[in-house]
Input
Amino acid sequence: MSWGMGLGMGVGSAHRQTWAELRRYPSALAGVALILLLVALALHTLATVPYDQAVASWRSGEARLPINARPLWSDWLSPGRAPRSQSLIATEIDSEAFPGGRRLTQRIALDYAYDDFPSELALFLKPRDSERAAFLRLTWRTPDGREINLGSRRLVGETRVALSQDRVLEQRLGRPAHLGLLAAADGEAVLSGRHTLTLEAVFFDPDAELASELLLYGRVHGLAGTDHQRRDLGLALRWGTPIALAFGLVAAVGTTLSTLVIAAVGVWYRGWVDALIQRLTEVNMILPLLPILVMVGTLYSTSIWLMLGVVVALGIFSAGIKTYRAMLLPIREAPYIEAARAYGASHLRIVMRYMLPRILPVLIPTFVTLIPTFVFLEASLAVLGLGDPVMPTWGKVLNDAQAQSALYNGYYYWVLAPAALLMLSGLGFAMLGFALDRVFNPRLRSL
Amino acid sequence: MSALVQVDDLSVHFEVRQWGFLRLGAVQAVDRVALTLAEGESVAIVGESGCGKSTLARTLLGLHRPTQGEVRFAGRALSGLRRRELKAYRASAGYVQQDPFGATAPFLDVRRILAEPLIIHGVARAEREARIRAALEEVHLTPVEELLGKFPHMLSGGQQQRLVIARALILGPRLLVADEPVSMLDASVRVEILELLRRIQGQRRLTLAFITHDLSTVRHYAERIFVMYAGRLVESAPVDDLLDAPRHPYTQALLGAIADPDAANAHRQRELPAGEPPSLLDPPRGCRFHPRCPHAMAGLCDRDDPPDFDVGKHHLSACWLHRE
Amino acid sequence: MPEALLEVEGLTLDYHTRGGVMRAVDDVGFAVGRGEALVVLGESGCGKSSLARALMRLLPRNAGGLGGRVRLAGRELHLLDDETFRREVQWQGLALVMQASMNALNPVVKVGEQVAEPLRVHLGWERRRALARAAEVFELVGLPGDFLRRYPFELSGGMRQRAVLAMALVAEPALVILDEPTSALDVLTQAGIMNALKRVKAELGTGFILITHDVATSSELADRVALMYAGQLVEVADAETFFSAPGHPYAQALMASVPKLRQRERPRAIPGEPPSLLDPPAGCRFAARCPHRFADCDRLPPSFAPAPRQEVRCWLYKEASR
Output
């Protein structure tokens, strides 16, 4: 016999009726819709973004993503069109062999049309069949005919030339390259029109090839923007969904089940067993959960699974035991329980099939409203800096935002999106839970 | 007639403890009770609430462990039964409780309520349905087809008690213990249920122990009566002897308190014993009725437990008045 | 007949339930004389407790459609607003002892204070005087005076019930309504309380309406008996008449179903069940279970008077005067 059977017996018969009742509460429908939305998002994420990829991307960021880009939708809130990231591939215009090597000339044409400067400029260079170090000279030509020498550099293997971080160039232009190169000669304004970057590479290998790409990092990216480490916030928000739901669900199931079973054991056996459970519960109730979690996180590990384990372990002897005990005590004394003993039902059967189904009506709403509290707990831990070191979660996003003074710096979306997701999940489960409470506990209906 | 149930010197005391271990005392719910129920006999155990009659009933069913003494069923002591034997015993002893409204799980339908004992005792699925239907027929819960899918709250009080009786009978018991089976039912339904129990008892040759506080319901539904007071058995006799000529002062008081419908009742005060039944945590020494008894003899009733005196054919009374 | 104290005419009470409107009390009329005890007898669900609630205006939330006329000592109670009724009629005019009300005592207030409360709240008596009066009433219902200073948990169920009774009597109401006052109590305790009620009735001249399902208990107090079936009164008669020669077939069947301690006659069950109050039959409500059923029973019978001071709602007595 299993818990599931006991549960099925209680709910199965009344199940259709419950749903019919539930549909009378618009808030319940809204709650279910929100939960379904979150679950769909979680499943979609799991199906489309593999875990390893998500973790790797979250750990080191993506070189091709801009820093602190706003989400795309922020464009609607401000005038003008913010620059998108633009990738431009070089076209080869000249190749000249010389003894022991070859010289390549490439050109990248940039038709710049945005009203604002990009956030960064970088050049990705991938030489092939080149053993020895090559020599590279870069020249920028503006639409108004100015030629700007971007200097020369050695080229060994695959290289990312971070033009915006070139201090020498910055001194020469008076400002970082992505501003200086695209601005008009005299002023602040963006100079639109065709800019041209010319690359002259001298290889000391006769068969060497060069693939080059100029990347203008935009000011907006994706639905959620990016953070200070070139990480896509959207990724963290999406991956945070299954993690949050799983954490909330596992913690809620774990604490509810263990609490329930222990309460039932205490009520059934009474005497010193019950007394011991009650005293343990009372001691445990005055132990503060959050500080203990902070301690574990600080001294041992901040792995989310460890935290989950600690939450469930501390939740076993939680206040829920008192509630369930109070509900189970009168049920234990019900004549039908005694009748069951008289016809030979085992202890396990009585507890599982005759006692627990009676408290399901209270259990289910409580359980549903418990889920978001654990989601919030995980987020709180992460905000306190005790988030899982590997996994992207909503709490970690908030933690980073706080560390980077996101609101002070105007990165409101950085706080808004994870906070909204947290609130939506809380709202969804709470609305469903409250409606379930009303359906299952008719006494509340008239309130 | 051979003895089916034999109760020897049975005491059931409940320890009262604080915090699960500090012993504060013991409630002497049943104290040194001896009785024998013959196979196929129907007896009534009568007394006020708290006199220990329900505890006695539960001990007969093996639901309480005797503190002292023994309950024997068909010659075997219940306390000596192994787990499996105890389970088998539970199939041979049926139990009907006072409160039909709480005696069945509210979330199970009639079919399932009756199936549970069968499942527990390993009756094959194929056989179950037939036995469930037969049980419903036997207690006249018809139409069977219509009732199988109903939940207890959809049934009337009388129907619910029939269902409880059907459940008690479905395993084919030899002993049926009915603890106040009609006290929560309406007057017109009471008789039906009592008649039903009487008929089934006769047909199945069951041993029926019928626990009640109401002596007026006993006459036609039991052959012998046992009267209990404060945990002790005070008098036992065949029904008519006891109702017509009670010998123990407590039985006399109890009978005197019961009204039959009569307009003259309204114009006379009833003779009643003073006071209330004693606390079973600290019952009085000697005869437990002596503080209320109009015939109490100082130096005797308040010192020594009265033995059972033989006061007639199969008529026992535990009172010092009979010592001559 | 003594001077009428309470007169009830055409009392109806409806409940709104999931299944529709249920008429729990249907056109009930009776009178109680000064110092007289009327027993309202009926099985569970017949509407007798609703009748008590309707008289006391203690209606549940789903009640609707309370109709009819109630006169107490000539005063038209149905014309009073709730506030006046509560202030002027409750406790002093009508008092109610509810089923299991012994469990409704406040566990943390001494019994004496609770019993004296109606005097202090409704009549504005000062504490000492009210407690002295409570002590008198305690004695009347058979409780020692020092019980005034006890808490409810120090009293047995029977004593608590007596205390509740004392509380109902303390403001000397003209009429006390007792709703199943002894049904949860033991035989001896029950008999003791009935003794106390008889004493009160004799000494104070209080009128009683005793609502019960227990025929034997009802005979302990009754001057008159009103038998209720499926929301309607089917017979109202003097106790002598009712217990010796009941007129209505239901009354006869009910009397025959009561096991009697001192008679060898075997009780007989009443076959069938009472009709649902959600959809009662158009004719006589007992017709389906009645051994004397005939064609007239398809119409609702009015009350006939086969004997003096006896009203029976049955077509068998159609020859008798109305």
